[in-house]
From TrEMBL:
Family annotation (Pfam families): PsbP (PF01789)
Organism field: Triticum turgidum subsp. durum
Official protein name in the record: PsbP C-terminal domain-containing protein
InterPro entries xref list: Mog1/PsbP_a/b/a-sand, PsbP_C, TAT_signal
Compositionally biased residues, Low complexity: 1-19
GO molecular function: calcium ion binding
One Gene Ontology cellular component annotation held by this UniProt entry: extrinsic component of membrane
Ranges where the PsbP C-terminal domain occurs: 86-233
Region (Disordered) location: 1-22
GO biological process: photosynthesis
Length: 237
């Protein structure tokens, strides 16, 4: 079982401090609807026709508001998978959101803000960590490959594991820079294939990491990419 490592970048050259009864069926009669020319209503009839009841007004207004909300409200990344295969996490106090696979359980790990994992496959997990920083942009720390390499070797993997950075790149979401990367960490009896994404916002350095056993990578990689792609900084806290 992999050991969760608390994020500490102090001393690693990145300039950052250290730090869950039946009713009978009714017979329906056929109804024929014919178009008819409207009759000239009396004044009283017009009042009944044109002035809906207060209850109807409330129902119509409520439906209109709900419809407008559905049309105008942007779909957040936390609801990226609406097919029920993922669960959203939205932490407005901490300032982030992401999704994780349905069925994973939240566990408490010292040094991590949130951790969700598969109880049967313990290497399948996602964790998020935050530490204070005076930096304002992830690019202030260096290019993606250098920053990812330092994190993978010194923070995201135990020192006894052999690590390999496969890819690192910069992405932009709502004008904010994120570094995303892929790596493997080899232990004596298993290899973990993992993904990560990092960014700086709200005076914090955010790190989200997820992965799986190498033998299950082909089965899990799409879900893991969904997790990483869903990570987003919310409005400033």
């Amino acid at each position: 079982m992999a050991t969760a490592t608390s994020l500490s970048l102090h001393g690693h050259g990145l300039g950052l401090p250290s730090p869950t009864a039946k009713t009978p069926a009714r017979r329906l009669l056929p109804v024929t609807v014919r178009a008819m020319a409207p009759a000239s209503p009396s004044k009283g009839a017009a009042a009944v026709e044109c002035s809906p009841s207060p209850r109807r007004q409330v129902l119509v207004a409520g439906a209109a508001v709900a419809a407008a909300a559905l049309v105008s409200r942007p779909a957040p990344a936390a609801f990226a998978a609406a097919d029920g295969k993922f669960m959203p996490v939205i932490d407005r106090k901490a300032g982030y959101s992401f999704v994780y696979p349905f069925g994973w359980q939240e566990v408490s790990v010292q040094g991590q803000d949130k951790v969700y994992k598969d109880v049967i496959e313990p290497l399948e997990s996602v964790s998020i960590n935050m530490i204070p920083t005076t930096k304002e942009d992830i690019r202030d720390l260096g290019p993606p490959d250098q920053v990812a390499e330092a994190l993978v070797r010194k923070v995201l993997s135990p020192p006894t594991q052999k690590t390999k950075l496969i890819e690192a790149k910069e992405t932009d979401i709502d004008g904010r820079a994120y570094y995303t990367f892929e790596f493997t960490a080899q232990a004596p009896n298993f290899t973990r294939h993992a993904l990560g994404t990092i960014t700086i916002a709200n005076g914090k350095f955010y790190t989200l990491a997820t992965g799986a056993n190498e033998r299950r990578w082909d089965k899990m990689k799409d879900r893991l990419h969904t997790i990483v792609d869903s990570f987003k900084i919310e409005t400033k806290v």
